[in-house]
Records
---
Amino acid sequence: MHTTLNGIKIHSIATALPPDIEDLNDLDIIFGEDETKRIIKTNGIEQIRKAPDELCSSDMCAAAAKIILTPELIEQVDGIVFVSQTPDHILPATAGILQHRLGLSKSCVAIDINHGCNGYIYGLYQSAMMVAGGGCRSVIMCAGDALSRYVNPLDKNERMVFGDAGSATLITRGDREIGFAFHTDGSGAEHLIIPAGGCRKPICDETSNVDMRPDGGMRSDEDLFINGIEVMNFSLREVPKAVAEAIDVIGWTKESVTLFGLHQANKFIVDYLRKMLKVPAGKVPVAMKHTGNTSAASIPLMLCNERERLISEQMLSKSVLCDDE
């Protein structure tokens, strides 16, 4: 499916990170020095940000939203979308809780979306539809995850990848057009999953048993599992086609795109996709080195980091000019 939505704009983006930092080099005590160094080199991740037990993804998203929402903007927001696979509760919807916490109008429409790595795009699409359709003046879209809570500390495959973060994006009425291209293949569900905890496989004594799995990871059925090879192959096979379709939908050329904002899974995948797309390295930021794969928050976090980098470079250039003068 592909489409374009008109009469909207992305007003602002903000992100929030938890305070705790885990240096992955310190994990050589658990996983061995050679294996730890190999994983760090492949993934390009040296640190991850971890939310303490009392901090949820909604807390990080709320912190990001409060950076954006001035008293004037709060009055204009009549929609909130919360995108996460780590909600506060099974029910009620976390979006409704955030509506109250952020002081939004009670006439606000509130929607939860259960998506992870692709969640930011789904949230953007839902929010843009709400504005473009005329139902909302402004929508605050909160996207974030605290997946480290579902990672077994003895599972090197997941512990050295996933970090936590929250984001907020304000979508308002404007004069912009946004193009979307979606592809869905549910046949690969088993390759990225927390098997137990839902209605299909309720938690019991058996699901909490931790043991060595065929891929070498130590975990239970209540822990996050990702089949890295299968997910990587899927990404390399499908993402270039989706990018080409999205560019075509909006009527651009690949050369006219100034930045390709890819999900920050790991450095190897992002670099490989860039080579497949045949675009310069400067157009495809890699920004998970000090945060890890932050799931639904990875794209806004990368965009905010990229903006800070560009501002820093501009300030440095100005200071050099002053020194020369």
---
Amino acid sequence: MILANVIEIWNTAWPAGVIMLGLGAVFAVVLLVASEKLKVQEDPKVVAVRDILPSIDCGACGFAGCGSYAKAVVADPELIGKCAPGGADVSNAIGEALNLQISADGAPKRPVVHCRAHTNDRTYYAKYEGIESCVAVNALANYQACKFGCLGFGDCVASCKFGAVIIVDGLATVDYEKCTGCGACAKACPRNLIEMIPFAHENMMVVGCSSNENGKTTRGMCKVGCIGCGLCVKQTELFTIKDFNARMDYENYAPDEKTETAYQKCPTCVIVYRGKNAPPPRVKEVKKPAPKPA
């Protein structure tokens, strides 16, 4: 009796099972065909460019990531050269992939902090105990005497995805071994102290000050600020003085005897080197008092 019931159930159910299995196979084939017919064919040029890019999605190019930039470059080759981390090598590789001739458009840009004052070099009006943010502190008028100096609360540090910016004794400092040149730190600084300059050489000579105050005022605020004395200008035409502050022509900088003399003669040691193997800043020599006559 039980066996008869099982046989009856089987005879009733197996046709439905076969039908369901057949429908599943048909749907699978339909979906497979549809996926092949309807899938978006990716441009092989976009794939080639994307594979060349460093895939760090830093946003320095102005696009959301390397994938977006790759599509934009293929659509408009004039956008080649905007990948700061990749520099000239990546630009040339993209040009080859797209069968284009790429002209050299300068050295890769890297950030320099136009301030070299550490905590003990500055004059402070008050101790700050509020939100640890440069933007917040910058809104105050009674914290730091120099309104052009580094605040040292690390907004630039927080903005860097690569750990290339740290605060050393109150001063934002770039680790050029880690830096990709994305420019995020420059955008984060509320005082615009960080500038992206072309690094045509491994170490660049820069002016570590942004003060526009006259020499006397600057001396009262900072031990290592630019006083606009013009000694550097007398040594080489690469330097100019504007608003009491020395400015370097970074586009045309090349190390030579004249620039080195300017570096050595700077009375406040505000001219410094920045780069992967940059020497430490000069330290102002303290003149010893002349011995009293016996």
---
Amino acid sequence: MLAASCMNDFDTIEVSTDIYTADSIDAPTTTISSLVSKYSSTIGNSSYQEITNDVIIEGVVTGNDISGNIYQQVYIQQLGADGMVDTEKAGISVGIKGYGALYALFPVGQKLRINLKGLYIGGYGALPKIGQPYININGALRMGPMTAAYTKTNIMKVGEPNPSCLKAKKLRASDLTSSNIDNITPMFVCIENCEIEDAGQPYAVTEYQENNETYSVEHKVKLNDGGSLVLYTSTSATFAGDTIPSGKLTLYGILSRYSTTYQLQLRSIDDVRKAE
């Protein structure tokens, strides 16, 4: 009976993700938008700069790696005075490697407080990013994710996840100008009554060629009021083999960029809905 009791107690033990994040970080010293503005030149040049003092930001997770379409990063945006995501302020990518499932640690709706001391801010394809530099296959230093150890010292979870605080910016063709790209990337967005040009095809399929591997596939999204942007899908996404639906759709996701090109990243297949 004693053995059975011990076994039952063991079965009910839950592993807390709190052991992977900081216990305490002081109040924010700046906003995400002010931080990005301060380092705009570094970000725009796809360079990086180390933060050597206590610079603390706060934001809520709007996108993570739950489907594999977003890799080694979570996106955060600041909250407005009403406690909802501020749809007029772009967010920032927080790059983290060393975890197989960031979504379990940082679910959508989780508020994060991040001390940037010892980390780097920079640009990956001119997209604002927090992380560390790495050496790419060509031997060049580029902005990449931080190692997992930094989540224990530099990132604190504030309260419980609250997905209801997310609010998507309704994206229009007039938003997608070259002069506006710094203001709206990265950002959680919604595109109503749009169409994906390659309906009937899969979102992404891994194609192997000699000495060449395809890691992503792009499809054109046509907006109802004119204009278009790229739907970027990783071949590692859980929905990569799903068929793109036809007709009018409402798409949610993270509006990102690579250099001067707008990219929409779905967080999961649930971000694709038939237009009402």
